[in-house]
Write a structure and sequence with these properties.
The protein is of the alpha+beta class. It contains 17 helices and 20 strands.
Length: about 500
């Protein structure tokens, strides 16, 4: 067992100690072989520092190869330019979201809501199939923590060296190693904060604003950055430094809500990291050439490597736990030990509960089929909606003043305000037309040329022969069409009000 597990092992206690432990915390009953032990814990006891062992293997490489593209995409996306603007820019003051070649407006808020719903449903589908792999391989908290841990290994050495370094007194070596680690942490955190704010403010302007300037007349040094951008830059930098550098497993164990409800989506065929207790027990130390099976022992040599490499500091041999993020590092560690002992691999592996008991895993099952079917339907509808999204918004408001209509000779007139929003990334010339049951005509209408993202409001007058009206309230439809592309056309229905003394 590892040192921290030994420290938590059950020890004889007086009745007073037990009562105090139960009042402050709770009791855990665990099964170890034929013995049943009771362990008391304190809810207010501070967590011990986790010293992870560096390990190589398939899942460690997989974490690296999935994390590096995510980091590269996150850092490079604000610098990529499309049509003279950042490829991804959430322009809150202008209420525009620029994502690659598309621009989304507040009217497209439903699309954002559906995108979030689809993302959550995709996460649920993946969880049913392969467990909590999102947390282990692609969660930003995991990716940035892995980056900070790599810096820690580089500056302070592997697990045993870091433990020794923390226990020794402060000297020049400890100061340089600790200082270089925290310096690199701060640099990474600052780059993370600047990049995050760069998704809301053009990153080139942001960096120029962070660089101090000197007034040529007074000689005073000043910064051109807006105080809000500066605040959020340093806020996210500080939170990155705190979360990835100090809190780490505390975020996964106590703060992340996904850890609390992900077990609801598990079933007996969900693939997750499991310890094969039938093969591993009874665990214990032995010599390489010893006939351990004759002594009634299993393949687990109780080296605790699976605990030492775990980023959330759990023992997978205790069974499936909500803290487990399915990163697979314990699998790599156990396989490395099995290779040294010349035992078969797979004592700890990705498998299901049914596979551990019967040797079979059902990949086609009603829950997974239902999740996949609904997810495919949602993605299909979403893609169709986005691809056929109309880059034009029209809002028609009828004049609701004291005079609902005007009579000019034998004509009845209504006044409307037409608001045209060109949401396309090109300029267009728009024409307005009106349709209805009667022969309606537009007065004061003209072609309007709108630049990209421009909003224009135009008052128009609709008239019709008084003798043609058969009802005091009639329905008309005002259409706005782009002259260069007839497929860009938006319609809105409204009411045309006439005198009440019309013939019925």
């Amino acid at each position: 067992m590892s040192d921290n597990l030994k420290a938590n092992a059950a020890t004889p206690a007086s009745a007073t100690d037990k009562a105090g432990a139960q009042g402050a915390g709770g009791v855990i009953a665990s099964d170890s072989g034929a013995k049943e032990a009771v362990r008391y814990f304190d809810l207010y006891e501070s967590e011990s520092k986790v010293y992870t062992r560096k390990i190589t293997g398939f899942f460690q490489r997989l974490r690296r190869y999935t994390g590096l593209p995510l980091i590269a995409g996150y850092l490079l996306m604000p610098w990529l330019m499309i049509d003279g603007r950042p490829a991804m820019l959430f322009d809150l003051p202008e209420r525009k979201f620029h994502i690659l070649w598309m621009t989304f407006w507040p009217q497209d808020g439903m699309l954002l809501a559906w995108a979030l719903i689809i993302s959550a449903f995709a996460l649920f589908t993946v969880t049913v199939l392969v467990g909590r792999v999102w947390c282990g391989f692609t969660c930003p908290q995991t990716v940035w923590t892995l980056m900070f841990m790599s810096v820690e290994h580089f500056c302070e050495g592997d697990r045993n060296k870091r433990i020794k370094l923390d226990r020794q007194r402060w000297n020049m070596e400890k100061f340089l190693r600790k200082g270089s680690k925290h310096f690199l942490w701060v640099v990474i955190a600052f780059i993370t904060g600047v990049t995050f704010v760069g998704y809301f403010t053009p990153i080139r302007e942001l960096l120029l604003g962070l660089w101090p300037s000197r007034d040529p007349v007074t000689g005073f040094v000043f910064w051109e950055i807006h105080y809000a951008a500066a605040f959020w830059t340093f806020f996210f930098a500080g939170m990155t430094y705190l979360n990835a550098g100090w809190m780490r497993e505390q975020v996964c164990k106590y703060m992340c809500p996904y850890a609390r409800f992900q077990s609801v989506m598990y079933d007996r065929d969900t693939l997750a990291v499991h310890y094969d207790a039938k093969r591993g027990e009874k665990r214990g130390h032995r010599k390489p050439d010893e006939d351990y099976k004759a002594a009634g022992m299993g393949d687990c040599i109780d080296c605790s490597w699976c605990v030492q490499v775990c980023p959330v500091d759990i023992d997978i041999r205790d069974g499936l736990q909500y803290e487990c993020i399915n990163c697979g590092l314990c699998v790599d560690a156990c396989d490395a030990v099995m290779d040294k002992m010349e035992y078969p691999r797979g004592l700890i592996r990705f498998t299901s509960e049914d596979s551990l008991q019967s040797g079979e895993t059902k990949f086609v099952r009603p829950r997974l089929f239902g999740y996949t079917l609904v997810l495919a339907a949602m993605v299909g509808v979403f893609v169709y909606t986005v691809s056929h999204r109309l880059p034009l918004s029209v809002d028609v408001i009828r004049d609701r003043g004291a005079r609902l209509y005007r009579i000019s000779g034998d004509q009845v007139q209504n006044v409307y305000t037409v608001k045209i929003n060109n949401m396309d990334r090109r300029s267009h010339t728009y024409a307005i037309s009106v349709e209805g049951e009667h022969d309606y005509r537009l007065r004061g209408s003209r072609s309007i040329e709108l630049e990209e993202g421009e909003i224009f409001t135009l008052p128009v007058r609709v008239s019709v022969d008084k003798a043609a009206l058969t009802s005091p309230r009639n329905e008309i439809e005002i259409t706005v069409t782009a002259a260069t592309d007839s497929s860009i056309s938006a319609k809105q229905k409204t009411s045309f009000i006439g005198p009440k003394s019309v013939s019925q």
